[in-house]
Design brief:
Blueprint lengths: L1 H8 L48 H11 L10 H7 L3 H14 L6 H15 L7 H9 L1 H4 L3 H10 L4 H14 L26 H12 L3 H11 L10 H11 L5 H6 L17 H13 L7 H11 L8 H13 L6 H7 L6 H18 L3 H7 L10 E6 L2 E7 L2 E6 L5 E2 L4 H6 L1 H27 L9 H9 L5 H4 L3 E4 L4 E3 L7 E3 L7 H14 L24 E3 H10 L17 E4 L2 E8 L9 E9 L5 H18 L10 H14 L7 E3 L2 E4 L2 E4 L14 H9 L7 H13 L1
Antiparallel strand pairs: 1-2, 2-3, 3-4, 5-6, 5-7, 8-11, 9-10, 10-11, 12-13, 13-14
Helix pairs in contact: 2-4, 4-5, 6-9, 11-12, 11-14, 14-16, 15-16, 16-18, 17-18, 25-26, 28-29
Length: about 725
């Protein structure tokens, strides 16, 4: 126990003395023990030389680090690191700079990585940096790969001159997205800039050089300074607008149209989207400066469409300003653009702003909104459906029906493409003509939709307005003269003038016999209507018809908004404002439900609709027609069952077409049978293996006369020609 206790306490117990036993009486005498051998003394220790002193120069220390570091897993604690820690901060900065410069040499990847490691280790410490050295490091960022956060800290601690700060901004911007967060404070180090166009934006990068080199530089600077003072009110003060009109006479405003095509972005150091607001304010003032320039209405309309796109960087607020300016352009020059934007604007706030702008323009003109839209359709200088313009020794012919730009040589021969001389000698005139053709096509689409909206308006068109704005108008006329109009006395007209008020005739109000007569007449004359009128399916009001039909919600929403429906996407949280549209004076709302937890639902089912008043037969038929078209396109699976009114109208057109063409096919409702294959008339899909129409078949299908444009029917004919 004593041994255990002493061992536990760390004591050394005294050794017991063993007494030699005495020999027994009469026994042998005791012998002395032999002495133990004494070991030889150890040899003297060898002398170990002292380690060499660490180098005291930057090149020597760098070489020593490059030689020693590959043997170690980390820097801290190594003899080299301890020696570097004893250096002054200025000497450490010299070594760091030398290490980063070493990465630019043609070395092995391992040596470059070792030098970069030394540089990163030292650069993370608070070292004194001069502006020139930091600029030198910024020039080799692609080699040094300095961490962004340490580089930003070093730039903040350095005392940069304004010239050095400007150069640092240029180098950081050139370094790319990896250093986008570096140097956001550098613009504050620059001297005060009295230029009205903000720096370091894509807009400023274009406009500042233009203004500084313009012969009207002083006029531009004065106008732009006044634009920057436009304020935050939706409509500027009258005093501000009077002054901007005076300043606008001193400079040519045409370049502003090109500035509105710039994609706004921050081009300086750091990520500073908040600094784009001064640029938006400046552009807002420039837009108001164009309030008297009706010739730039198309440019303003395109800029408004761009701003009103979802999440556009210019912003919806600026887009609403452009709408206000379009409403105030002289001679209703902006009304056509506002009408075109009806099918482009998607968000509810923007649609409200667009409606308010149209109402403002109508009030200024003393007309209703519908009367203003029909009176403000641009004519594009067309006479008898065309306009000719000499360009570089050739004649450019712009036509409306169909919309095309044709080039005529000196011999009067139509060319297949744009002459090379025009591309070389008159590129600006060519670009202007091509932009005008694009605008003409967009206008035709807008007017086609407007003509169909006449069925939803309870109004008649006076005889003078009918002749001026419909029959003889160079853009609307070719479409209006191919439609059937009904006078107040019930007479039906096709391209004829009258002394009575008229409205667009709808087959829901006509007799079946009269409908067949008009169909035969237009088919005999081969008149293709701009949209289905004589062949428009007629529906009875049956809200339960579409109950339970499942659709792709996003596609359904796009189709509905294109037709003027308000359609917020629904999610599992519900929709406080269901999709709705006004038919005449009646508001119709749809009720949808989804069966998925997604926000918004991928698929929705129509479960019913609310109608707050009685619908006329025309409005009821149009409501059901729109729902049939929208749900047929947006359904997830094609219905290959019995045909509805839309499919039956297509079947009737197809029956007549088969009687005029050579095609070995027949109709077996709801199929078009070609040999052993069948094509569904409703969906346009062929049974069995997928079939792709050939180019020749598509050409033959497009050559078949159809009473109106029907892409699905053209596809059916192309498939039939391919299979026959």
């Amino acid at each position: 126990m004593w041994k255990t206790l002493t061992r536990w306490l760390g004591w050394s117990a005294p050794e017991a003395t063993v007494e030699p036993e005495a020999p027994e009486a009469g026994g042998p005498a005791a012998t002395e023990p032999e002495p133990e051998p004494v070991p030889d003394p150890p040899p003297p220790p060898e002398t170990v030389p002292d380690p060499p002193p660490p180098p005291e120069t930057v090149p020597g220390m760098l070489d020593a680090f490059l030689e020693d570091m590959p043997k170690r897993r980390w820097i801290t604690g190594s003899p080299i690191a301890k020696a570097i820690d004893r250096w002054t901060p200025a000497a450490q900065a010299d070594l760091c700079f030398a290490a980063y410069q070493h990465t630019t040499k043609p070395l092995s990847p391992a040596e470059i990585a070792t030098a970069r490691t030394l540089g990163h280790w030292l650069f993370a410490q608070p070292l004194p940096w001069e502006g020139e050295r930091l600029l030198a490091l910024l020039q080799i960022l692609d080699h040094a790969q300095i961490p962004a956060h340490t580089l930003d800290r070093a730039l903040r601690s350095a005392e940069l001159t304004p010239r050095e700060a400007q150069r640092a901004i240029e180098l950081i911007t050139a370094a790319g997205d990896a250093y986008a967060s570096v140097g956001a404070f550098l613009p504050s180090r620059l001297p005060t800039d009295d230029h009205p166009v903000p720096r370091y934006t894509s807009f400023g990068d274009v406009v500042r050089p233009f203004v500084d080199t313009s012969p009207h530089r002083e006029g531009w600077l004065t106008l732009l300074r006044h634009c920057a003072e436009v304020g935050t009110r939706r409509t500027p003060t009258q005093r501000w607008r009077t002054r901007i009109r005076e300043l606008a006479t001193d400079v040519p405003l045409e370049p502003v149209a090109g500035w509105m095509t710039i994609e706004l972005a921050w081009t300086g150091p750091g990520s500073r989207s908040g600094d784009l607001e001064p640029t938006r304010t400046l552009v807002r003032g420039l837009v108001w400066a164009l309030a008297d320039r009706g010739d730039l209405a198309a440019d303003l309309g395109r800029f408004a469409e761009r701003c009103l796109r979802k999440n556009d960087i210019w912003g919806e607020k600026l887009g609403n300003t452009v709408l206000d300016v379009l409403a105030e352009l002289p001679d209703q020059a902006g009304v056509a653009q506002l009408s075109r934007l009806k099918s482009k604007v998607r968000t509810t706030p923007s649609r409200r702003a667009l409606h308010a702008a149209l109402e403002t323009a109508a009030t200024r003109a003393g007309l209703t909104g519908e009367e203003l839209e029909e009176a403000a359709v641009p004519r594009f200088g067309l006479v008898d459906g065309q306009r000719e313009q000499p360009v570089a020794g050739f004649v450019a012919r712009l036509t409306c029906d169909p919309p095309a730009l044709t080039w005529i040589d000196a011999k009067g021969k139509a060319l297949r493409s744009v002459p090379a001389a025009v591309k070389r000698d008159a590129p600006d005139a060519l670009a202007a003509l091509q932009a005008e053709l694009k605008e003409l096509r967009s206008t035709l689409t807008t007017q086609r939709h407007r003509l169909q909206r006449l069925w939803l308006q309870d109004r008649s068109i006076g005889p003078e307005a009918f002749e001026a704005h419909y029959l003889t108008h160079p853009v609307v006329g070719p479409m209006a003269r191919r439609l059937i109009w009904e006078t107040a006395s019930g007479t039906l007209l096709l391209g004829d003038t009258t002394d009575e008020a008229v409205r667009l005739w709808h087959p829901a109000t006509g007799a079946e016999d009269a409908l067949l007569v008009w169909r035969d007449r237009l088919e005999e004359l081969e008149i293709e209507q701009p949209f289905p009128q004589l062949w428009r399916p007629v529906y009875a009001l049956q809200p339960e018809r579409f109950a339970g039909r499942t659709c792709d919600q996003r596609q359904l929403a796009e189709l509905a908004k294109h037709r003027g429906w308000g359609f917020p996407l629904a999610g599992h949280h519900g929709t406080p404002d269901p999709p709705g549209k006004v038919f005449g004076d009646t508001v119709v709302r749809l009720w949808l439900e989804g069966d998925e937890p997604n926000i918004p639902y991928d698929r929705v089912r129509l479960v019913g609709m609310d109608i707050d008043a009685e619908l006329s037969p025309v409005h009821a038929s149009e409501l059901m027609y729109e729902l049939d078209v929208m749900t047929a396109i947006s359904r997830r699976s094609e219905d290959e069952g019995a045909l509805g009114p839309l499919g039956r109208a297509r079947l009737a057109v197809l029956e007549r077409a088969l009687g005029r063409i050579r095609l070995d096919a027949h109709i077996d409702d709801p199929w078009l049978v070609v040999g052993e294959r069948r094509i569904h008339i409703g969906s346009g899909l062929a049974q069995g293996e997928p079939v792709k129409p050939t180019a020749a078949s598509r050409t033959k299908a497009k050559a078949v006369f159809l009473p109106h444009d029907d892409p699905t029917l053209v596809e059916i004919l192309a498939l039939a020609f391919t299979l026959s």
